[in-house]
Predict the structure.
Amino acid sequence: MFRDREDHGMFINILALRAYATGARIYSDAEMSNHIHVNVATDAPDRFGAYLRMSYTKYFNRKYGRTGRFGDGGMYILRVSGDGHQRVVNNYIMRNGLHHCATERALDYEWCSIHEPFAPQLGKIDLEQEADYITDRHVIADHLPRHSSYPDHYRMGADGVFLRRSFMDIEALEQLYETPAGFLYQMNRPTDESWIAEQKEDEGESCLIRLGNIEPGYAPEAVAAMLRNESGSYFHPDRLQDLDVCRLIDRRILKPLSLPSVYQLDFEQQASIYRKLHYEFNLPANQVRRCLALR
């Protein structure tokens, strides 16, 4: 879903635009290479998700010369209510990079909202410094879909991406954790039955949030592996992540040969690049198929 940093940035911008257009409140998000998670308060989650898909698909198809629907049909929607449930679902979302073995620690994963709660207290970049903000609306427009509308309080960083703190409800997210220490504790605690007990303290009949229903497309053994990944001991810093492999394909293999994007390669070209990556670079077959967009 994301072949370079620009793709990640555009998705965040589209998410911000949709929040403004609908009055939705966004608490947390995580963008993985092949799926996303968003915790959003909205009366129409299906329409909210459809807009994200439609806008991002238009951008992605235009950039990479592909056509058709992007991603699987439909989306998975889970209703969450109660502070205990909310805390658990945000924990799972912001720790998603850890579960998928993309980082050794949850706080190391870049493409999620884990860096926003208590940012000033935890020594993050001073978000009040406006020196690095892009303020010229003509320049900002270059980083957005055409005819986009956004409020004045949205802040765009020098990388062309709206700051999450300017459009997400970070204050409500912080209230769930109460203090910076409480937040760090939740980001580093192992998943156990106490997570279920805390949800049972909520009133109402909301279903219990577990990793299995946050990641509904994965088999039970895959979910068990995600839980084991929480220790960080299965992460290998030298292993290429999907974004690295996509950059390797797009910049080092396709560009020097003046080949089109992976979405326009014929079968022989796909097979040649597959063999090179799988056998010469010793990359996992599943990862190579993902990054070459092979069905």
